Fold this protein.
Amino acid sequence: MNYFKRFFKFASPYKKLWILSISLNILYALFTTLSYVVLMPTLNILFGETEKVYTKPVYKGFYESLNKDYLGDLLNYWVTYTNETFGAERTLLYVVLVVVAVFLLKNIFNYLGQLTMIFLKNSVLKDLRAIMYNKIISLPLPFFAEQKKGDLINRATGDIGIINETYLNLVITFIREPLNIIFTLIFMIKTSWELSIFIFTFIPVAGFIISIISKRIKQQSSEIFEKSGNLLGIIEESISGLKIIKAFNGEGLFSKRFLDQSEEVRTLSNKMSTREALASPTSEFLGIVTIAGLLWYGGKMVLIDQSLLGGTFIAFMAAAYNVLTPAKAMAKANNEIKKGNAAAQRIFEILDTKNLLEDKKDSIELKEFNSEIEFKDISFKYGENYVLENFSLKIPKGKTVALVGQSGSGKSTLANLITRFYDVNEGGIYIDGHNIKDVTKKSLRSLMGVVTQSPTLFNDTASNNIALSNPDAQVEDIQNAAEVANAHEFLKDLDNKYDTYIGDRGSSLSGGQQQRVAIARAVLKSPPIMILDEATSALDTESEKLVQDALENMMKNKTSLVIAHRLSTIQNADLIVVMKKGKIIEKGRHEELLKTKGEYHKLVTMQTLE
């Protein structure tokens, strides 16, 4: 129930729709009962089973006349008058028209109630998707290292749809159907309290039996949602890694993995569906047993004891059916709420995830970069083992510092730490004397441009991919950035020039072209600090030359932290830092390090021989 309450916080902005929908459903329940109220005295008079009323009852005011005797006598009077004046056929016609009018109003209110609920569902669904999406993209990178993409996608789409559909439907079910039952039971008790006992007995018994049947539905729903998320994960991995799968003839392996996961979903779905399917026929059978009891007991009252009129009994039976139908709907809703709770649990797990890299309340905004970047005695570990230990380094403004070393030495970790994708375990990183933990992430990252080894491009136009760093940029600014990045020459030759869609992850471009678009994006931002993480290591010689020229153009008058695999690209750096197992073992300029005949000389020699 806690999930149910939390969900309705998202629906609270739409109070007017709520009130309108609830009001319409109350009217629907009222007119449903009214249809039987109209039917009963009419049948009794037509069958000649009640004393006819020839004198119109006296109206004594609204509240005084709002009772069964006055309303019954008034209806009897009009039916008697019409029957005596115009005949039974005309009376029957009028009765039918009244019944049709009541049922028409009932269904109009039902339609309008459902329509307002649809509008409410769509509005809440839109808001929930936005909240879930914003939460996901706000979470730090360590969170995603422990999650499966497919499961996250399933939570943000499928689970949200389930909770929205089930919970909002349940609201109508638990407002309209109980009112339907209450209004009808009031009518039935007024008519015959003996027969009403059958209905009072049926509802709790049916509810108890159905609750036993649906006991494990929530648990099975949670398992199905999780397995479905795994299925989406396999699909996502298969599409993104299709080239490698085909290259190693791995289609059979991935197909088997997908089929095994599908089989688990099928098995769980069958078990849950068995329970769900059992609820409806069980409640149906219980309803028939109740109706059979009513027929036997009520028939005895009409035919033998003659303590109940035939017309009244027919109307009572119709009303009894009107109780059984909503009772069945509520029994079925018991299953639905368990599915909704299972989906809600998975959604709120994400929404309740604490962002460990959240800005402090008193965080400051860095407007500019004036002096230096300092890594001060920092230590960092991803798991149990430290990647960096007591690492210290200063990068003065306007200087280019290159980090080199074997894979796993901690170079890329430094890039992740300075951009605050991760936080240091010990020590601190300072910009102009400000610990970056005390700075808003947005202002920190606004000072930085990042170019990685694998450029991240989106299925959009080349222009929009470049303008990601500055959405307000003019066409001329985008083109100028592309020229600095040596990207203009190939972009102007595309089918629609800069407005050409470049495919998923830039698949319609070569590796070198993708990298130059990514560099153009960083150039357009024009930040004072550049982070280059092995930006040329995956390129061929010709592409490397073009990209390296673009990088040098971009880095003019910038403070740059360059992580390099190919040492030929950083020979002009102001400082080269050689790292090994998270520590600095050498540092200096290119010529100085070569003379020491140390680790840097060894790395250069190895690459020269390649």
About this structure: The chain has two domains: 2-351, 357-447+570-610. Residues 131 and 351 are 8 Å apart (CA to CA).
